[in-house]
Amino acid sequence: MTLIDSLRTEARAAPESGIVAVVNYGRLREGMIPLWAGEGDLPTPSFITDAASKALAGGETFYTWQKGIPDLRQALSRYYARHFGKTFPEEQFIVTGSGMHAIQLALDALAGAGDEVIYLSPAWPNFDAAAGISGAVPVAVTLDHSGNG
User: Fold this and answer.
1) Distance (Å, rounded) from C-alpha 142 to C-alpha 145?
2) Which of 120, 124, 119 is nearest to 101 (CA)?
3) How many of the other CB atoms lie within 10 Å of CB of 127?
4) Per-residue pLDDT of the chain (149 residues; tens, 9 = 90+)
5) Angstrom distance (rounded) from CA 7 to CA 74
6) Is 114 helix (H, G, I), strand (E, B) or coil?
7) Confidence (pLDDT) at 38
8) Quick check: pTM over 0.70?
9) Sequence spans of domains, the chain
10) 136 touches 117 (CB < 8 A)
11) CA angle, 124 as apex, 45 and 82 as ends, to 5°?
12) Can you tell me the distance from the alpha carbon of 42 to that of 61, in angstroms, rounded to the nearest whole number?
């Protein structure tokens, strides 16, 4: 049995990401600015690379906290209170590695086999596949830009 054969049916049925096709096309073009997958077109600022180097040198190379680093979750709680006047305890924050990761976690937690997941279209291109991997049925509702509805 191959690794692919060992995956759930829903995961095997997930289509290849359209974003990946665009990225692969763009990588072959000289001078292309990489704006296709949420990537910036500027180098990472030195304060970020310096902090990453310091963390690695300090031994921060092991598994992180499952729901996110506690100090970061506390900072997010303070940020929302300060900027939006809303108080949320840190336990209500889960830090993910990406927006797509957050979407997949939410779908896995809330939707199951055969559940319809209704979303506004246009939407993130990978949403259909994420819903399908969760076993759910994605249902797109096209936004009406005419002002009639």
Assistant:
1) 9
2) 124
3) 20
4) 788 888 888 878 777 777 777 788 888 888 877 776 666 667 889 999 999 999 999 998 888 889 999 999 999 999 999 999 999 999 999 999 888 899 999 999 999 899 999 999 888 878 888 999 999 999 999 988 777 75
5) 37
6) coil
7) 67
8) no
9) 4-62+96-142
10) yes
11) 55
12) 26
The type of residue at 91 is: E
Residue 52 amino acid letter? A
CB-based contact 89:67 (threshold 8 Å) = no
Rounded Cα gap, residues 61 and 114, in angstroms: 40
HSE on the CB side for 47, CA within 13 Å? 0
Bond from prior residue into 15 cis (ω within 30 degrees of 0): no
Q: Nearest Cα to 96, choosing from 118, 122, 143, 64?
A: 64
Q: Which residues contact 125 (CB under 8 A, 6 or more apart)?
A: 17, 18, 19
Residue with tokens 């359209």: 18
Q: Residue 97 has what DSSP assignment?
A: S
